[in-house]
Amino acid sequence: MSSRPNALEPLQPIGDNLYLYESSDSTSDESQGPSLIVLFTWLGGATASRIQKYLLSYRAIWPAATILLVTTRVFEFAAATSGATHARLKPARDAIRRHVTSRVKGRPSTLFHIFSNGGLHTAIHLILSLRDTKDRAESLDLRPYLKGIIIDCCPGQTDYMRTYQGAIVSLPSTLLGQLLGKPLLFLAVTLSSSLTHAGLVAGVKDYRRQLNDSNVFGSLARRFYLYAKEDVVVGYKDVELHIKEAKEKGYEVDNVCFLNSNHCSLPRGNEEMYWDTIRNFWKKLVLKREDQIRCKL
Known about the structure:
Layout: E1 12-15, E2 18-21, E3 36-40, H1 48-61, E4 66-70, H2 74-79, H3 82-88, H4 90-102, E5 110-115, H5 116-130, E6 146-152, H6 160-168, H7 175-197, H8 204-211, H9 214-217, E7 222-228, H10 236-248, E8 253-258, H11 271-296
Pfam families: DUF829 (PF05705)
Keywords: Membrane, Nucleus, Transmembrane, Transmembrane helix
Membrane topology: Single-pass membrane protein
């Protein structure tokens, strides 16, 4: 994706492939929408122009929200150590801590929007690194503030060729970009597969398990799976199996399967439906929480 400072306005770069728009509204409550939206991008084709469409829609629906964009990088997903990934994410952690402590009225309400296995990988690293006890002064458990998780086109299964197909979309369309990029991507995916099978780095199988682990994302957040039946990168049956497992673990789950859609392109041709489902997901989440509060009174 482009690194131009204005490519993702009004978000501004705060680190290496990290962008932030900080709302001046510190008093809105969750009935008006999430106070913080964190987007974790996918590996293939996550260009600034495509990401900007999501940003514009979120700002139109919930203009008072702070928006944090965390991109996913191919080689980080394939072979980077946890330490290297956590170091890159430090500005994102600082932004989240600042948001949580700056709320004047009510508790922060956070919405994660996770795209594909790549975004899931990055989201797991971010939420776990926030609680890193190596620096207790900065440790933050985000789980009480995480109200909803949109799980967009994931999680898949450990599939070498599907991972390669997902990553290859990110290559430049020029002949030179294809000629140079495909062998490098092939090596990266091969390395990732080898390291995963050797148990040296986490893989998609681990991410699937961690997504349903209350020690990672907590048990309070409502989950919303959005996926495509024709997705060639993440199979819909893999997603539906994870939905079944999440329900069996007692999580509150909603899901929508889109027809005639591609991987991480669900709004294309379905824009009104896509954003209506997201808006209604949050409304449903708020109403359920209000009912729970009334029952305790």
